Amino acid sequence: MTRTALVTGGSRGVGQGVAAALVTAGWRVYVTSRHGTGPDGTVPLACDHTDDAQVADVFDRVAREAGGLDLLVNNAWAAPRGFGGFSDRFWERPVDDWDTLIEVGLRAHYVASVHAARLMVEAGSGLIASISSFGSRGHLHSVLYGMSKSALDKMAFDMGHELAGTGVTAVSLWLGLIRTELLLSLGVDEFAGFSLQRAEDPEFVGRVIAALADDPDLTDVNGHTLVTAELGARYGITNNDGTAPDSHRGAFGGGPLFPPAATEPGQPRESGEPRGEDVHG
């Protein structure tokens, strides 16, 4: 039986690579973008993720045509005015940066997750994966960027708590440096101190998500923040050229984020805590 995925913001960059990889893995893939475009083999849908009615229409169509949803990849994102403004300090930027970095970079993920959960809980299975980054651990780009990514991690953690026992899993994914077409066009060997040779292809991220969705122990990581490079190593997944991407965990201080590293003395571990190797971010 063909499974169905929805990738928000799937017309370019990470979303495009994820959607393409899922198509290759045999998924039926819907993608959203403002202009209704997407990679070959997908079902592209026009959607402004700041418009709740348009988002609801997307999920209604997916449910009507596919009969349900097995995977949501929250990837929609919008840059603030003047992307180069990320080199400015927060008080030097217009406050309406909030409208893109929080409204699209966070709220849109929550709204999509609500609709996905309604379909998935009824079916008793599914995966909600939100694209986050190491910007929730250390300063990266801007104050609002870090706020949105930290909130995505906590969102997945709390959703996981409320989804426990439903068969539906919510995770947040920390991506490393991504070899997008834009980044590769710069002709540099490293970016922000990280090697492009050991960065992640967008399709790598998609293959990791597909493998995660297939993991028989998926519910064990419900509510967790996971590092895509480390999941790739666990599942034996590499970039398009066969290289294994580096995890940036150490560069951003190491250690876990969600779930908490330990419980209070005498208290049991939360359901969903991983057994064996620690892979959460």
| Helical/strand content category | alpha/beta
User: Shape from CA axes?
Assistant: globular
What letter string, H or E per element, gives the SSE order?
EHEEHEHHEHEHEEHEH
Helix content: 25-40%
Give the number of helices: 8
Question: Structurally, how many domains make up the residues?
Answer: 1
Low-confidence stretches: 263-281
* Largest beta-sheet details: 7 strands, parallel
Any guess at the CATH architecture?
3-Layer(aba) Sandwich
- Rg to the nearest angstrom? 18 Å
InterPro entries: NAD(P)-bd_dom_sf (IPR036291), SDR_fam (IPR002347)
Region (Disordered): 239-281
Protein name: SDR family NAD(P)-dependent oxidoreductase
Biased composition (Basic and acidic residues): 270-281
Tell me what the structure shows:
The structure is a single chain. This protein has a single domain (4-252), classed as NAD(P)-binding Rossmann-like Domain (Rossmann fold, 3-Layer(aba) Sandwich). 35% of the residues lie in helices and 15% in strands. It is globular. The relative contact order is 0.13. The chain has 281 residues and is of the alpha/beta class.
Summarize the structure.
This protein has 281 residues and is an alpha/beta fold. The chain has helices spanning 13-24, 52-66, 98-101, 103-123, 143-163, 181-184, 202-214, 228-235; strands at residues 4-7, 28-33, 43-46, 71-74, 126-133, 168-175, 190-191, 194-195, 225-227. It is globular and about 45 Å long.
Topology:
Layout: E1 4-7, H1 13-24, E2 28-33, E3 43-46, H2 52-66, E4 71-74, H3 98-101, H4 103-123, E5 126-133, H5 143-163, E6 168-175, H6 181-184, E7 190-191, E8 194-195, H7 202-214, E9 225-227, H8 228-235
Helix pairs in contact: 1-7, 2-4, 4-5, 7-8
Region (Disordered): 239-281
Protein name: SDR family NAD(P)-dependent oxidoreductase
Biased composition (Basic and acidic residues): 270-281
